[in-house]
């Protein structure tokens, strides 16, 4: 245990570009740190990383721990874990947040094991609150409430870690709102020593191939998403057509992806992307909690479903009870006529 109450954020970067989720976590870290009366510290590892530390400060960090070494140029589990776990032991953060990206999902459990602390994965919300232990008859103040879907998405669980520090969590991309950078903001940058053990460097990267994503759902202001109620490729083409008319992107529930109508990059929900578009049209989506977890913060939701009691209608702003094969052509026709 420690009296330190600083909130740490792992800054994921590649080719001098900071991962979007790290910027989102900085904004959330600022919010949490204000409640705790503490600071936001960022951990940034790499080699040729230019002015990334200044960018991190502009997005809310009070202090950046900067670890620079050629061995940290590309992410590898053991070197990164060694450096960051040493820093955590030295400065003892109160909370440590990591993005639930492929890198974060690899790094976070290794760090938690090294530090002998708990870890909650794939959180969709973070809050600060108190916890009363009936067994100990004790109140733990200002704990991190780590909120995430559980039991296949059928319940929302709130998890706390009262006894060990840091309180660690990975957070899904898109569930936190990214703040705007303050170009006048000032903070501290501390270059830290980097020490490895021989076994940390056993894995060598000989080559790397990158594939850029073909779709960026979280950046689209309009999304038309298909679910199990879309029964055929012909009906799915109506979803594509409506998205094109609106200048938006095509999304999907897991059912539509599993049916082979579209690639997994388009999946929205607990096991897909989290989005916050200005307009979300759910075509034939029942609205299971797994899907709602990825889109319920949309500004306007239009739901189309044959079942008037479908769960999606509980969060929809506009509800259309009907078959997508009948409703979508009418919407497309109306929009095209207005565009003339």
Mean pLDDT: 93
Number of strands: 17
* Helix percentage range: 25-40%
What is the CATH topology assignment of the largest domain? Rossmann fold
Rg over alpha carbons: 22 Å
What is the gist of this entry?
The chain is α/β, with parallel strands linked by helices and 340 residues long. The protein has helices spanning 20-36, 52-58, 77-91, 102-115, 233-246, 254-258, 289-292, 324-339, and strands at 7-11, 13-14, 17-18, 40-46, 63-68, 95-99, 119-123, 125-133, 138-150, 155-159, 167-171, 188-191, 222-226, 249-252, 279-283, 300-305, 318-321.
How would you portray this structure in words?
- This protein is α/β, with parallel strands linked by helices and 340 residues long.
- The protein folds into 2 domains: 7-201, HUPs (Rossmann fold, 3-Layer(aba) Sandwich), CATH 3.40.50; 217-339, TPP-binding domain (Rossmann fold).
- The chain is 27% helix and 27% strand.
- It has 8 helices and 17 strands.
- The strands form 4 sheets. The chain has a 7-stranded parallel β-sheet with strand order 7-11-6-1-4-5-12, sandwiched between helices. A 5-stranded parallel β-sheet has the order 14-13-15-16-17.
- Strand 9 (138-150) and strand 10 form a beta hairpin.
- Helix 3 packs across helix 4 (102-115) and helix 5 packs parallel to helix 8 (324-339).
- The longest helix has 17 residues, at 20-36.
- The chain is globular and about 65 Å long.
- 41% of the residues are buried.
